[in-house]
Design a protein that fits this description.
alpha+beta, Ribosomal Protein L25, Chain P, RNA Polymerase Alpha Subunit, Chain A, domain 2, four-stranded mixed sheet, 13 strands
């Protein structure tokens, strides 16, 4: 199995330190490239172009990274740093990989469809693992693993890691018995009983009302 890689053009970067603020204002993200068979290189990439590529590739799809229109380097997005408030991307690490050596990484698990047990109010969906660890050649890593929940009709029905799809190009390292999702019994909200009125409380309230009217 192979995946089409996504092209992304970047440029070498001269600005560092406090000058990076002005770089971001111009619509660029500071970045760095390191890894297999490359010299560590400071880069800059247009924000819109990176966002589009990252939305498609995520962390598990290869990018064809072209530096100043040179030959493309196969990379993963290793790390994305975001501003704590605005959540805008502040810095990106690109990791060049050896395509002939298997790597191990976490891949997201996506639930597909609707569980009849939930639709019919029989139970609620309890989510377990949201990612699993996968080993494969860089070009064979799946971007995500999808599993249908449309067969979950009763309470206690469960999907495990062993139910995830495989095609021989990658190996799931996570324990097969780990839970992905389960149907659990709906929790009824406990009824709250009203506190009984204490003896004499009503009479005191009546006396108080009569006193207010007298004034």
């Amino acid at each position: 199995m192979s995946h089409e890689t996504i092209a992304l053009e970047v440029q070498k970067r001269e600005l560092v330190g406090k000058k990076l603020k002005s770089l971001r204002k111009k619509g660029y993200i500071p970045a760095v490239l390191y890894g297999f068979n490359v010299e560590p290189t400071k880069l800059q990439v247009r924000t819109k172009e990176f966002d589009a590529a990252y939305n498609s590739a995520g962390r598990t799809a290869l990018l064809d990274l072209s530096i100043d229109e040179a030959s493309a380097v196969k990379v993963f997005v290793q790390e994305v740093q975001r501003h704590p408030l605005s959540r805008l991307v502040q810095h990106v690490d690109f990791h060049a990989v050896n395509l002939t050596i298997e790597i191990t990484t976490d891949v997201p698990v996506i639930l597909v469809g609707e569980a009849p047990a939930v639709h019919n109010n029989v139970g609620v969906l309890l989510r377990g693992l949201e990612t699993v660890t996968v080993q494969a050649l860089p070009s064979d890593l799946p971007q995500q693993l999808e599993v249908s929940i449309e067969g979950l009709e009763e309470v206690d029905q469960t999907l495990h890691v062993s139910d995830l799809p495989t095609d021989g190009a990658y190996q799931i390292i996570t324990d097969p018995s780990e839970m992905i999702v389960r149907i659990t019994q709906q929790q009824l909200e406990p009824e709250v009983e009203e506190a009984p009125e204490e003896e004499g409380e009503g009479e005191q309230a009546a006396d108080s009302d009569e006193g207010d009217e007298a004034e």
